[in-house]
Amino acid sequence: MPGREMRLVVSLSNIRIVLVEPSHPGNIGGAARALKTMGLKRLYLVRPDRYPDPQAQWRAAGAQDVLEATIVCEKLSEAIAGCHWVVGTSTRQRRIPWPAADAESVAAQVLSAAQAGEVAIVFGRENNGLSNEELQRCHMHLQIPAYTGYSSLNLAMAVQVVSYEIFKQAQATPVVEARWDRPPATSAELEGLLAHFERVLVRGEFIDAGNPGQTLTRLRRMLTRMEADETEVQMLRGILSHLDRRSAGSRDGTGE
Ligand code: SAH
Question: Is the pTM of this model over 0.85?
Answer without folding.
Answer: yes
